[in-house]
Each structure stands twice: as C-alpha cells, then as structure tokens.
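DM from R.C. (forwarded with permission)

"hey, sorry to bug you on a friday — could you get me a structure for this? deadline for the figure draft is monday and I only need the backbone to look sensible"
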Amino acid sequence: MQALFAGLDVSTQSCKLVVIDPDTGAVVHVDRVEYDDDLPGYGTVEGAVAGLGEGVSESDPHMWIEALEMLLGRLSDSDVRADRIRCISVSGQQHGLVALAADGTLARPRAKLWNDFSTAEECRILTDAVGGVEAMIEEVGNSQRTGYTAPKILHLRRHEPQLYARARTLFIVHNYINWYLTGGPDGGVAVLEPGDTSGMALWHPGTGRWSRKVIDVIDPNLPEKLPPPQPADRTIGNVGPDLAARFGLPPDCRIDAGSGDNMYGALGTGNFAPGIVTLSLGTSGTACTVLEEPFIDPTGEIAAYCDSTGRYLPLLCVSNMAGGYNAVLETFGLSHEEFDDLVKRAPPGNRGRLLVPWYEGERTPDLPLAAPLYFGFGLSDFVPQTLCRAVLEGHVLNLWDGFTRMPVKPREIRLTGGLASSPSWCQTIADVFEAETVPVRGEGAALGAAIHAAWVWYREAGDARPLARVAEPFVVLDEARRARPDPEQRSVQALLKRLFRALSRRVRGLDGEDPFVLRRALVELTSS
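My reply, with the result:
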C-alpha cells in the first residue's frame, strides 16, 4: 500500500496540515484552520485570548485540539486516503507552557505562549539565583528570556500556586499535541525531545542534562512534572484508537517525536547541511543554520538549540519584523507591489536616513522596553519612499546585526514567511548578508514535519534512505526570485552596516564608532 505522511504545524495563529506522498514526490493535501476566524468562540486576536493585559499572551489549549480535529475531519472527507498515513509529526510554536493534571484535564485553563512578556521578574529571579547571565548560560546554554519556558513555570508557581500544585505534567505545545494524538487521558505518551526542549532554558542542549541549579530555584520537585526527553529521530507510539476510528487513520499509524516550528521550518527549506541559512520573515524574524557541534553564545543572544536530526541549530530571533512593514503599508494605503516600487525611488543607504525598528521592545538585542529610533531624518524626509526604504533596510540590518554572532558564513540564504516573495526584501537581504538569497515555495514547518515523519518511519522500517533524498522533491526553490549581491552596492552596504551597528551600540550606552561621522561618510558616498 502506498504510504502517505502527515505534518501538523500548531502555530500561534493557525493550525496547518500537510500530507505528502514520497513515492510520487507530491504534496497531496494542504489545509489550515485560522483560530480567530474559524474558532471565534475562543475570543482570540492573532491566536491569543484578547483582553488579558499588557504583556500577557495566552491561549486555551482546547482550541488547538479543536483545530486539529477539524483538520482531521476534513481530511477524512477528502479524496486522500487517510488509512494510508503511516506516520504523523507535529511542529509546535516553541516555549509555550501547558499544565496538565493527573486526570488528563488542564491544570491551568490557558497556556502561556512564546510571546508572553509577563515573566520579566521571574527571569531576573532565576538569573540572580544562579549567579548572573554567564552562570546561567553555563547552566542551560541560554540566558533566561521572557519567551522561554522556565520563567513561565516559576511564574505559575509564584502567582498561581494551587494550579501549580495540581499540575502533574508540564508540556511544551507540540508535546501536548503528541500526548493527545497517542491517546490523551487514555494512555497518551508524555515525552519531550531535544529540539523544543532546548528552548525551555532548563535543559542544556550541549550536555543533554537538566540544570539542577535552575530547577531548585523553581521547585526541587519539578523533575516529577517534566516528561523525559527522547531522541528526535524516532517515533513515540501509535495514534490513539479513538482518533483512528473517528478519522479513518490506520491503528498502527505512528506518531513522530515532533519538534519546534523553527526545527521543522529549517527542514521545510532544505536546511540540513552546514552553510545553508534559513531566514523566516514573519511577525518576528529568525535566522538559523545546522551545525555538527553545539554553539553556545556567551552573550545568550543566539539561542542554543538542538535540531530534529541529532545535530544543532543555533538560532537568532528578532521580535520586530513584519510589524513595521505592515504599519507603513497601512499608513500610506500601499499594496506590496507599490511598496516595492517606492523602495526603488530611494537609493540603497537612503542617503543616511536610518531606522532602528525596535517598535515593541526587542528580543535581540535584549531590550524589552526599546522604542524605534529615526536617525538622519529632516522634517521634510517623512515621505513614503524614504520611510519605505528605511523600514526595509532597518529590519534587515537589525536581523543582520544579531546574525553576525553566528559561527557561519552563509553560502546560500533561503527565505520563508510572508515577506519572502517581495523582490525588494530578497535583494536587500542578499546585499546586506552578502550571499545569494532565494525564497522557498511550500508550506514551511508543516511540510518539514511531514518530511520528518517520512524519514523517521522509513528508518524504523529498515529503510535508511537519507533525509536529503526524502526532502528533495518537496523543497522547491523559487529560482525566478533568486537575488545575488550587487557588487556596485558593496561599499554602500559596508558603511550602512557600520552605521547601524554604531547607532545601536550608542543608544544602548556601549562603545563603538561615531554614528554621526559614519552618516556623513554615507551621505557623501551616495551623493557622489
């Protein structure tokens, strides 16, 4: 029987299902549930419950289960043979915290999401208790950030101790979905895996060990609530009998260990060989690459993660990306194409007009109270073409500035996310990063999950076909949009990057070059 494989991406704003047929190299089914529109009863805005207060971002995990069941129901009603699906893998938004009681109900009715910023005090408590940032990085390979899971657990224990006491199992999002898929209260499997677990800031991705020091600050008995990690390149159990019967899945359909959306987003862009860099351009922006050895950034700005294949995936995340772009479109009533046209009217370097796009605080650099900075603008310069160029270059430069800490020189950058189809974004990234840049067609993390499900199932069936062979038919590069660095802009880009870094450092009170001197040099260069 022809084998099919399914990937689920339980993201912040939607749940997506992709089914692939590796024998024919075809994506045979794609479907999506948008939480805000398709499940309005949960009262979400961009996937989070509205009205919970500043900095709080939470969702009801039942919403994810209902979305999953909607997708499985529509799959069973489609022409695709659900009974041929041999393995399912789940990609999940990272860092979220789902608290489960012993009877399988939610110990806390909502899950804190990755973009919840209400745990700043807990980050300080944890960091101070272990002896500062350097000591924390030694313990868990990462600094403590409000997005990570450890401060969420401490927040739960400090502010809702009765709910914490009721919690028997503390899950990350995709592990909760795996538990449900394997039977939920009726025998569901509770495990973690290295990729997503890396982002808890409790477990060191380099050593593969829990931090006793961090655990003891939260609760010495915390390990009783944490499922055991298992390798990412294996399955964890069969689909639950009830789900199999209701949705036509075979009883022996396996459930993959799954991983975080960044790990599977890398797979979906063919990023499983050193030298390939994936940039994801969405609400936030990320950059990641696969390494054979762990990379621990002594500043904590580059997140230290494992990938989903037994290797390592250092990752940069900036929290401001599409927001500034969408705001300028709305302000001037622009389409994407009109934005690209306006960018062409302002030269690269923008004649020294620079935007530091820290609109709503920033994760990298770690500035939760940051605000945007407009530099070099005269009163008559706030016109569409100048602002469009400033927004574009500011976001790309902010991503580049953090990326320079990565121990890699990219031989090719692969783009995914909503902004990847824009010619101006592709070209600016190629110029700033000095690397060929190409968008990737396809379904991102959900596709990566389906590819992983196939690869793992084949391996367990005794077919050790390489991951690249499984992925090759599905990773489609948009060659028509490939951008190459413009050699004529090299000197402008070099000055522009120095200016951005100098301005970023100056506003943070750090030593660096004089941004005013660099701006003058850039103006003179672009005016000649």
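R.C.: lifesaver. The chain has a mean pLDDT of 94.
me: no worries. The domain at 4-246+253-263+443-477 is CATH 3.30.420.40 (Nucleotidyltransferase; domain 5).
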